[in-house]
Specification:
The chain is of the alpha/beta class and about 300 residues long. The protein has twelve helices and eight strands.
Length: about 300
């Protein structure tokens, strides 16, 4: 009988181990910084994506235009040294632009202009495991939210801003929400703008697989297991939809009807569950995920400015 057990064990390992290996590769590609070049500040822009290239170069132009207002800043968050750039426009408040996965602070330049026009100073940051900041794992907001609270303390306690507003793009909006819903969130973080927020990363991940026409991952549960172990992220049972009812501060939802990753129905669910007394959902007709502003820059900037005026 023992040979039967041996055969069964061999078959089991032959079936299971390859799945763990493949899932590990997928997780590593998505959420692990394997070298300083990966998710660095120097990026290779896609030749066939004129929209993204236009956003990136317009952002670089913004950074050059206001370079005289910029200073390098850094903080220590836990064991990580994190770096950013602070644009001091002489305002009394500051906005932190929080980019999504794979993007350094250079990407955030593109979203800074409406805050400068509103009289805010601007902080752009390299999230942990991105740009010049320390770190290996992208934690999908489950650890980065504490980094944003540390950045906010710097803005208020050392750079003498009276209040902080958060602007998150994709995963960045999840980071901002987690920071605001945390029990230790300081009062001076006054609110946030969520550009393309998802209900949880698991839903967004599945939509990416479909829209990008990638092979169906039948063992995505193993990928989620890696996320839970190494990124401390429960992407199925926890996410913005599970926390947003704790939010008491103002929130502006910006969402495109063409978003196929964080779909419009997800935005509606988040808005309906949100308990903030000051919430607003603004729809945009065009724009893929994270591509709203490039398709309607005047409306995008005006929407933010009007919301900020309500706060002030």
């Amino acid at each position: 009988m023992i040979w039967i057990w041996i055969v069964l064990i061999v078959i089991m390992f032959g079936l299971v181990i390859p799945e763990f290996v493949v899932a590990g590769v997928i997780y590593t590609v998505l959420l692990v910084r394997t070298s300083k070049k990966k998710w660095g500040r120097d990026v290779t822009l896609p030749e066939n994506d004129d929209e993204y290239r236009g956003m990136y170069y317009e952002g670089l132009d913004w950074g050059e235009l206001y370079a005289d207002y910029k200073r390098e800043v850094e903080i220590k968050s836990g064991k990580y040294r994190l770096v950013g750039e602070y644009f001091d426009f002489g305002g009394e408040k500051a906005a932190i632009i929080i980019a999504g996965r794979m993007e350094s602070l250079k990407y955030s330049y593109y979203f800074a202009e409406p805050y400068r026009r509103a009289g805010y100073n601007v902080l752009v940051v390299d999230n942990r495991a991105h740009g010049h900041s320390d770190g290996v794992f992208c934690c999908l907001g489950y650890r980065e939210y504490a980094d944003i609270q540390c950045w906010s303390r710097l803005l208020v306690e050392e750079l003498h801003n009276k209040a902080v507003f958060l602007h998150g793009i994709c995963i960045g909006s999840s980071v901002a929400l987690f920071a605001l819903c945390d029990d230790n969130c300081p009062d001076y973080i006054e609110g946030m703008c969520a550009d393309g927020m998802y209900v949880n990363f698991g839903e967004s991940f599945k939509n990416h697989m479909v829209e990008d026409k990638r092979p169906k991952i039948i063992f995505k549960g193993i990928v989620y297991l890696y996320m839970r172990i190494f990124s401390h992220a429960d992407v199925v049972n926890d996410g913005p939809i599970n926390r947003i009812d704790r939010l008491k501060k103002p929130i502006l939802f910006i969402h495109s009807k063409e978003d196929k990753y964080s779909t419009p129905d997800q935005a509606e669910k988040l808005y309906e569950k949100c308990q903030s007394p000051n919430k607003r959902l603004v729809w945009f007709e065009k724009g893929a995920h994270s591509r709203v502003r490039v398709n309607a820059p005047e409306k995008y900037d005006r929407t933010i400015n009007e919301f900020l005026k309500e706060l002030n």
